[in-house]
From TrEMBL:
<dbReference type="InterPro" id="IPR005119">
    <property type="entry name" value="LysR_subst-bd"/>
</dbReference>
<dbReference type="InterPro" id="IPR036390">
    <property type="entry name" value="WH_DNA-bd_sf"/>
</dbReference>
<dbReference type="Pfam" id="PF03466">
    <property type="entry name" value="LysR_substrate"/>
</dbReference>
<dbReference type="InterPro" id="IPR036388">
    <property type="entry name" value="WH-like_DNA-bd_sf"/>
</dbReference>
<keyword id="KW-0804">Transcription</keyword>
<dbReference type="InterPro" id="IPR000847">
    <property type="entry name" value="LysR_HTH_N"/>
</dbReference>
<feature type="domain" description="HTH lysR-type">
    <location>
        <begin position="3"/>
        <end position="60"/>
    </location>
</feature>
<keyword id="KW-0805">Transcription regulation</keyword>
<feature type="coiled-coil region">
    <location>
        <begin position="70"/>
        <end position="97"/>
    </location>
</feature>
<keyword id="KW-0238">DNA-binding</keyword>
<keyword id="KW-0175">Coiled coil</keyword>
<comment type="similarity">
    <text>Belongs to the LysR transcriptional regulatory family.</text>
</comment>
<protein>
    <submittedName>
        <fullName>LysR family transcriptional regulator</fullName>
    </submittedName>
</protein>
<dbReference type="Pfam" id="PF00126">
    <property type="entry name" value="HTH_1"/>
</dbReference>
Length: 299
């Protein structure tokens, strides 16, 4: 068999979104990975599925036939998975969740859509007020699930690893630091650093890099919106530290530059957490498994 479901989903996503870049975001792949898969299936079939006309992807005759099959097969597979899920798992309930990082709300909706398709009877409620304090909210009984960037060590909480990502220093392309391959603590000493929050105990950059080295930036600013941080960095008004996937579109367009922080990289290991005293509902376990599989886009 040459074609499988992932190939069909790929073709449908390119048609539905209009470009390889947008399709990669929908499928949680990097653009090079998606392009490689597309070339691979075209080589296997011995036929081009798309004609590249500038930025547009236009279906060829063979491509139209594959799309026709994709519409039928993917729809049937999704329906079968949803039906099996309804038959084998508890399908009614409320799932209250929060994450300790605001940028997670940029990729979380795509996970929620996939989850809701399989568990339509489960209401997912995002507790934005618990952002940055999910562990506290879990212990207070305000949440059913928290997404945190450290292993779970509290005896009243259970947890499972999800994925890891890397924080990068981001700045305007013409910023002097953009020329470096790696940044160290001393590189931040003369900079205006843009942070989500102050106190500094909540900053990964400070806890893992700057404070151990005894370095304090020349200026600190609290900016709570990712979009505002990105725009300020693009304008050359400061340096920020963000997950690479959070600024992937800007990096692709060349409006931002990203530099690794320390030779080892500033990595976060994300975990799901829930109250240990409560036996997790099947749909909570299913949501955690989906998070671990999907994770943030372009990770």
């Amino acid at each position: 068999m040459i074609l499988d479901v992932r190939h069909l989903r790929l073709v449908a996503a390119v048609v539905d979104t209009g470009s390889v870049t947008a399709a990669a975001r929908v499928l949680h792949l990097s653009q090079p990975a998606l392009s490689h898969q597309l070339r691979d299936v075209e080589e296997r079939l011995g036929a081009e599925l798309f004609q590249r006309q500038g930025r547009r992807m236009v279906l060829t005759g063979p491509g139209k036939r594959v799309l026709e099959a994709a519409r039928k097969v993917v729809s049937e597979v999704d329906a079968a998975e949803a039906e099996i899920s309804r038959l084998t798992q508890q399908s009614q309930g409320l799932l209250r969740l929060a994450t300790e990082c605001y940028t997670a709300y940029h990729w979380l909706p795509s996970v929620l859509r996939r989850f809701s398709a399989k568990h339509p009877g489960v209401e997912v409620r995002i507790a934005v007020d618990a952002t940055r304090r999910p562990v506290e909210a879990l212990l207070a009984g305000e949440l059913d699930l928290g997404i945190v960037s450290e292993p779970i060590r509290h005896r009243r909480l259970a947890g499972a690893p999800l994925f890891e990502d890397e924080l990068m220093a981001v700045m305007a392309p013409d910023h002097p630091l953009a020329k470096k391959r790696v940044l160290h603590a001393e590189d931040f000493a003369r900079e205006h650093v843009l942070l989500y929050s102050i106190p500094l105990t909540e900053s990964t950059l400070f806890q893992q890099v700057l404070l151990p080295a005894g370095v304090t930036p020349a200026r600190l600013s609290r900016v709570e919106l990712t979009e505002a941080i990105v725009e300020m960095a693009k304008a050359g008004l400061g340096v920020a530290v963000l997950a690479r996937w959070a600024v992937a579109p800007e990096l692709a367009r060349g409006t931002l530059a990203a530099v690794r922080v320390t030779k080892q990289g500033l990595r976060r290991h994300w975990h799901a957490a829930w109250p240990r005293t409560v036996r997790p509902a099947p749909y909570l376990t299913a949501f955690v498994e989906l998070l671990a599989k999907a994770g943030p886009p372009m990770r």
